[in-house]
Amino acid sequence: MKKYRKEPQENVAFYNNPEKRAIIYQILALAAIFIFTYFILNNMFTNIEKRGINTGFDFLSSEAGFGILQSLIEYDESNSHGKVFIVGLLNTLLVSAIGIFFASIIGLLIGIGRLSKNFMVSKLCMIYVETFRNIPILLQILFWYNVVLASLPNPRQSFSYFDSIFLNNRGLYIPKPILESGFIAVIIAFILGLIACAYLVKWAKTKHDETGEEFPVVWTSLAILIVAPTLVFFVSGTPATLEYAELKGFNFKGGWTLIPELLALAFALSIYTATYIAEAVRAGIEAVPKGQKEAAHALGLKDHIILKKVVLPQALRVIIPPVINQYLNLTKNSSLATAIGYPELVTIFAGTSLNQVGQAIEIILMTMAVYLTISIVISLIMNYANEKMKIKER
Amino acid sequence: MATFESKQARPAPRNTKGITHWLRENLFSDITSSILTILSFVLLYLTIPPLLDWMIFDATWTGTKEEITKDGARWIFIFEKFNQFIYGFYPEDQYYRPNLVLFIFLLYIYGFKKINNTLVRAFIVLSFPVISVVLLYGGFGLEIIPTTKWGGLLLTIVVAAVGIIVSFPIGILFALGRQSKMPIIKTISIMYIEFIRGVPLITLLFMSSVILPLFFPENMDFDKLLRALIGITLFQAAYIAEVIRGGLQAIPKGQYEAADSIGLTYWQTMGLIILPQALKISIPNIVGSFISLFKDTTLVLIIGLFDVLAMVTLTSTDPKWLGFETEGYVFVTLIYWVICFSMSKYAKSLEEKFNTDHR
Questions:
Q1: I need a surface site. Which of A387, B192, B202, B354 has the fewest CB within 10 A?
Q2: Where is the ABC transmembrane type-1 domain (chain B) (predicted)?
Q3: Which residues contact residue B46 at a Cβ distance below 8 angstroms, ignoring those fewer than 6 apart?
């Protein structure tokens, strides 16, 4: 008969003692990892020496010598590979931010739409989700880039909206605000507005706690944030103008240009990720027990109050973690830009720079480190938020 | 004292059956709903007829390239390049080999349910990979077809299948490792899983295609496809591990305690009691993970392998058939959509089948 686990007998052989055995297993695992690491590092150094590959991070300060389609900061060919890294990183963040913004809006609308009582609306939303979720994101990126955007007219026949926004096969052209020195006043007004809103929220909460009266915080805050800066803007003599894109020669000049690569990538990422966000929103709302709504009805609350005070606060707890995960996935998927040449981190740093300096190990590790950092930061924030939002049970 | 007063008869209740009732309930329940319904119909009217015209009514199905005159889809391109989409550059006289692999696979699936002998079952499971590799690659008298000739849907399926099969046991080990009480094993597992899940698949593919050869002695020759498979498997194992961990966490503590109390060892407990239940709970999520992997196989085109999506780009640069990307993309979209959609419906049905929740 076997002995009870928790009290091993003294005379039992060490390999039958679970605690001692655990230590042996762990030592073996560590040893295996050390041997494996030694093996690959050893090979690596031999190979590097044989092939005459440079090592170290000196290449970051050497001249890149290639142009980049689009950069958020000043960049030209004489800049270093280190600068290429920064440009790529900023472009990754740019397309991720645009993607996250639109994916959230589309996802929210479609997710709520799927729960609609209207037959047509819920079915159309379902078709949207089932269609785009089941097509690889890379295929969607290539489709938008090679088929849809490539079939847009040339600059001379551009689609034009209000004579200020133009769309053609070279990209989307939107007016660019030119800020003058007086614009600082508008920014100050906006910041003051934000502070006022913070106080308003606090005041409304105290009032609600004491008297039970509701104050329309959201609408008032919105009004403050829009009206105050607008007033200051006109009072200080409109210290900003718009620079419109104009057709000069064969292409548009001036304004802001969104290159087709960015458009295709942002489109595909938003449309694809929105399907997952929509499912998360739907699951979150469905997870609120029916009894909660019924109880709120029984108390005589109005529908929009029930949504705002009963359903959403509970649904959000379920919705937010998977949605943040989708934001992370979207950011990681932005690396597929390399298939169409949008100049983000993987395309220009792990692509062009790597081809020029050939230091694969450093470059790939740096690229991975960027994504890893983003992942870890986001998951830390999420864990913190989860902890804060947890229903406090006694 | 109250006197009897007859009340006016109430109107008959509204019809609660039939098409008018359904329309009023589901399409025109109030003004907002009615507007949305009308907008939906407008949207359908604007998209469906042109799409059908392009795909079916105006499409060119047969003939030669010169005969194309209409505005619709030119499906003759798909028929012309069909073999390349499916087999890549695999020699035409050897097509029977991948076909045979598929046939054996279906036969085994069919036979597997009928056989109750564990040994025969194990033989089936273990022999299939060997048979497939020999048939696809060659050897034992068969002509050798190097993996550079593999392509199209064949390559897509090879990558997905290897990724799914090989990553599974590795994933289970990492899931168990993450749940382990041994701190070093646990740390190693967590580091592996979080590292892989934190980076995009494309960087892992780059790593396995550019850095991996540096890690091994020069005489060790790594096939390009093999490198991609290593990257994909490492990636998938981390995701499978997390899915299975979810299943492990759902197993009540009493199950472990019961196994302990009858004196089972760790591997007996896991193999006979915990894992069978955990895997059963995880099946829907495992299928979900397979779907993601199947979609992600398209990424191998970025490191220069010609999967079915890459074949579209390649065939549409054929000078004789320039500019047929649209048809190619639509065709590949249909392939992926049908496979992924059926898998996700299957996962859904499994979820319902395994729902033993009696609450």
A1: A387
A2: 153-347
A3: none
Nearest to A339 by CA among A136, A153, A169, A99: A136
Please answer yes or no on whether A354 and B210 come within 8 Å at the CB atom: yes
Tell me which residue in A121, A135, A350 faces B336 most closely, judged by beta carbons.
A135
pLDDT digits (tens, 9 = 90+) for B291-332: 999 999 999 999 889 999 999 888 888 887 777 888 889 999
**CA A187 → CA A164, A183, A229, distances in Å?**
25, 7, 7
Run of H or E residues at A340: none
* Partner B, chain A 76-135, Cβ-Cβ below 8 Å: 116-121, 124, 130-131, 133-135
B198 in contact with A, Cβ within 8 Å: yes
Lowest mean pLDDT of A99-108, B63-72, B77-86, B254-263, name the range: B63-72
- pTM of the full predicted structure? 0.87
**A391 is written with which tokens?**
């229903």
Strand segments, DSSP code E, in A62-189 are: 159-161, 165-168, 171-174, 176-179
What is the Cα–Cα distance from A335 to A141, expressed in whole angstroms? 11
Question: Residue A373: CA atoms inside 13 Å, Cβ hemisphere, count?
Answer: 8
Contact A367 B301 (CB under 8 A): no
Residues of A in contact with B183 (CB under 8 A): 26
Pull the structure tokens for residue A267: 């489109």
Strands A256-258 and A251-253: unpaired
The residues, ordered by sequence, that sit 6+ positions from A376 with a Cβ below 8 Å of its Cβ are B194, B198
H helices present in B53-90, as ranges: 76-87
Residue A170 has pLDDT above 60, yes or no: yes
Mutate to test the interface with B, among A33, A117, A119, A330 (most CBs of B within 10 A): A119
CA distance B110 to chain A (A): 27
Name the residue among A2, A136, A371 with its Cβ closest to that of B295: A136
- Long-range own/partner contacts, residues A234-240 (CB < 8 A, 24 or more apart): A236/A182, A236/A185, A236/A186, A237/A182, A239/A179, A239/A180, A239/A181, A239/A182, A239/A183, A239/A185, A239/A186, A240/A177, A240/A178, A240/A179, A240/A180, A240/A183, A240/A186
Strand partners, A174: A256
Q: Which amino acid is at A1?
A: M
At residue B32, φ and ψ (nearest 5 deg) are -55, -50
Q: What is the CA radius of gyration of chain B?
A: 28
Q: Do A44 and B214 touch (CB under 8 A)?
A: yes
Report the amino acid identity of residue A148. Answer: V
Q: In this complex, do B36 and A120 lie within 8 Å of one another by their Cβ atoms?
A: yes
Which of A47, A120, A138 is opposite residue B298, by nearest beta carbon?
A138
- Report the complex ipTM: 0.88
Rounded Cα distance between A387 and B13, Å, is: 52
Coil vs helix vs strand at A172: strand
